[in-house]
Amino acid sequence: MHQITKSNNLFEEAQKYIPGGVNSPVRAFKAVGGNPIFIKKAKGAFIFDEDGNEYIELINSWGPMILGHANSKIEEAVQKAISGSLSFGAPTAIEIEMAKTICEMVPSIEKVRMVNSGTEATMSAIRLARGYTGRSKVIKFEGCYHGHGDSFLIAAGSGAITLGEPNSPGVTKGTAQDTVTVPFNDVNKVHEAVRANKENVAAIIVEPVAGNMGCVLPAEGFLEGLREICNAEGIVLIFDEVMTGFRLSPSGAQGVFDVQPDITTLGKIIGGGMPVGAYGGKREIMDFVSPVGPVYQAGTLSGNPVAMAAGLAMLSQIKEDQTLYSDLALITAKLENGLQEGLDNLGLPYTINRIGSMISVFFTSEKVSNFEDAKKSDLNLFGQYFREMLKRGVYLPPSQFESWFISKSITPNLVDRIVEASNESLRVIHQ
Ligand code: PMP
């Protein structure tokens, strides 16, 4: 029996002092029903709640823990950094090492600025694109999530869809007017949007592989099409690789699809689990950032020495492990095949999308290549599936509109356990 008494008590207490009891909305399990489990610790492929239940980890802190939890090299690096004080607010050598590593790993990045979250990275990138071009509009794609900056909470994905607030109150009309949304994977609609806002589009921002409406791959020619439009119109192309950076290859989705953006935003894996983000790109554009240029952006804790130590320990392991991405793709393909076989055996027509170690099961029989398609999923059924999986010791993202993240700690044996749990869960919810 899956007991979560302590978690339930903690959730009750948490709601007294924290809005909704959580510090980020999707953690509340609101979309899937039931109360969130409160986490005590995690190691490798496993996460443990306050009641002592063990789960196979498929959230991995929403992406960062690509090597599994409590990685010894990252922890050692953090401990060493801590002994020299937690923060200086002054330049350090380790920041250069971090910047150099990023520039080497992601060739489209010639200069990079560290920040403290993915949200900060995208907010800063968009301001930079506006400052650089002298234009005001931004094109984004429905169902893509770029953090909670005002400009991006228009048809936004992730928790914003999950909780039914793709357009958040509190974002002024003026701000919303400067964001133009188009369907993902539709280059023609981008052309139309650019024509309708002639000479006034500063940037096109896109998750090159969307992870925030569930995992949705770019159609053939989509990213190339965006690159061409940006070249022709003098628009800054921003790849938001907060999720895909160092997840799909050492140089992110841009390495996989061989399309180079002007600016890349990074987060998650780059911090090794610490709160870190970054934005970087062409030298000419990055030199518009203060203090060398006029576009202001700053941060008391940016480039924090402990965060840099964690991030570098993560990136150096990624660089050294020649088979990391092929191993991750192989194990996730095994998971995909197992899940697909289970669906086939039960005669269930649901859709699985996967690339590398990102995977989503959509509870719809139709192909999912944009937000409209993703929204056809049966959310109630997903909620039931989620709860059955949790009872069986598998910790999935608590929303249909999120990707699952596979870590290096997931073994073939664990994949078998996930598939078995999935088959049982599907049987139960379709009784
Ligand atoms: N961009 C993308 C593509 C993301 O997936 C996220 C977070 N899920 C963000 C931006 C925002 O990052 P953060 O939560 O660190 O602010």
Automatic annotation (TrEMBL):
Superkingdom: Bacteria
SUPFAM superfamilies on file: PLP-dependent transferases (SSF53383)
Presence of keyword Cytoplasm: yes
Reactions catalysed, as given in the entry: (S)-4-amino-5-oxopentanoate = 5-aminolevulinate
PANTHER family the UniProt entry points to: GLUTAMATE-1-SEMIALDEHYDE 2,1-AMINOMUTASE (PTHR43713), GLUTAMATE-1-SEMIALDEHYDE 2,1-AMINOMUTASE 1, CHLOROPLASTIC-RELATED (PTHR43713:SF3)
Family: Belongs to the class-III pyridoxal-phosphate-dependent aminotransferase family. HemL subfamily.
Name recorded for this polypeptide: Glutamate-1-semialdehyde 2,1-aminomutase
Lineage, highest ranks first: Bacteria, Pseudomonadati, Bacteroidota, Cytophagia, Cytophagales
